[in-house]
Amino acid sequence: MVAPAICCISATCGSPMMKHAWDNYKRYAWGLNELKPISKQGHSSNLFGNIQGATIVDALDTLYIMEMKEEFKEAKEWVEKNLDFNVNAEISVFEVNIRFVGGLLSAYYLSGEEIFRKKAVELGEKLLPAFNTPTGIPWALLNIKSGIGRNWPWASGGSSILAEFGTLHLEFIHLSHLSGNLLFAEKVMNIRKVLNRLDKPEGLYPNYLNPSSGQWGQHHVSIGGLGDSFYEYLLKAWLMSGKTDEEGRKMYYDAVQAIETHLIRKSSGGLTYIAEWKGGLLEHKMGHLTCFAGGMFALGADGAPNDKTGHHIELGAEIARTCHESYDRTSMKLGPEAFRFDGGVEAIATRQNEKYYILRPEVIETYMYMWRLTHDPKYRQWGWEAVEALEKYCRVDGGYSGIRDVYNNHQSHDDVQQSFFLSETLKYLYLLFSEDDLLPFEHWVFNTEAHPLPVLHKDDGNKEENQK
Ligand code: DMJ
Fold first, then answer.
1. Which residues are annotated as part of the binding site?
2. 289 C-alpha to center of ligand 1: Å?
3. Which residues of the chain have pLDDT under 50?
4. pTM (2 decimals)?
5. CB atoms within 10 A of CB 395
6. What's this chain's function (predicted)?
7. Mean pLDDT of the chain
């Protein structure tokens, strides 16, 4: 089946899906972090402490790109009048960075409005005390009033998390670029120094690192949750530097080599998947989060060493196919949180607590990269299947909701419209059906929350040209 009505989400007419998500957020949860679309009220998550307005800040660039001018204007006014970081709040450094700092930076680069630059830098400064640890590996959690940090109590031996401290680089390089304060860049470059001093088991990066001792915690390696965007940021740091950051490049391709050797496997039915590694043993499970890696491999293909460009594109295509299968093998045609390749199943969730779908973007993200890099029409077709499933099962009167069990047609909604649905899922869908010259990859890299940041060239001044 070919996407029948591309116009409905493409650049020509804005996105009715975005409009529905935004209008309902505005009606029922304006100024709060997220929307509960069934109970039609605000939803607060402890990731942002009492910083408010996550959906507004996360959605700014999507509104701008979709030319929803009125909505962008009201969002900007809210930021000017209400976005306040002078609060006594314990926040997740990673989540606040990718959604708030990333969202504000993109809004600034796209619109040129000074308020977004000012707020991004102000928030970046609030995050700096997180790096006050013996090694400079930041805490996961930070009270932005007192500057006191700590780690998640569940994290192995008091460790910081690879995907959290490894997903600050792009934003912090831009904060230095826009503020002239080199401290931001120094903090993230030091993270690399610590990592490069450490021995890595089989060349792999464990998900846990103790910020006091500088030693790895439990040897659990994952390209999904807890690890994912660390690898993404190595590649994108290199791309964002105008391909001058050789250290980032080397760390990325070395890591991919180890991942291929130790984690990537093929099922008996011919599906390529990325397993998890626990102290040398493989768990044949792949998370929805891991599906972003298809797009990452394809995006990195061009610079791959030893003539491996075609191989990395192929790897991206195989991961895209596996993740599409994980959607296609459910009754709702939406993918589960995790799927397995053991006990006689392939690309299917077997545990009840892995059957949910919370409006995540990673599979559509991979379709978007694969489309741009190959122009194989199947990626638009698969994206369209996802649009139809979202409309059928996730759309409710009050917005869009996640689903508790994608294998059960009697839908049970989780009653949360995640802010990343507006920043990522809907943006990647829109880009999938747009021309390649909208945010071209030569000029923009997307942070892990799909916020576009411009490529920085050596001769760039302090202010970027709007390159949209
Ligand atoms: C987003 O916040 C980001 O993509 C992050 O890197 C991983 N999880 C969510 C979406 O699933």
1. 448
2. 7
3. 1-2, 4-7, 11-13, 462-468
4. 0.96
5. 15
6. Involved in the maturation of Asn-linked oligosaccharides. Progressively trim alpha-1,2-linked mannose residues from Man(9)GlcNAc(2) to produce Man(5)GlcNAc(2).
7. 95
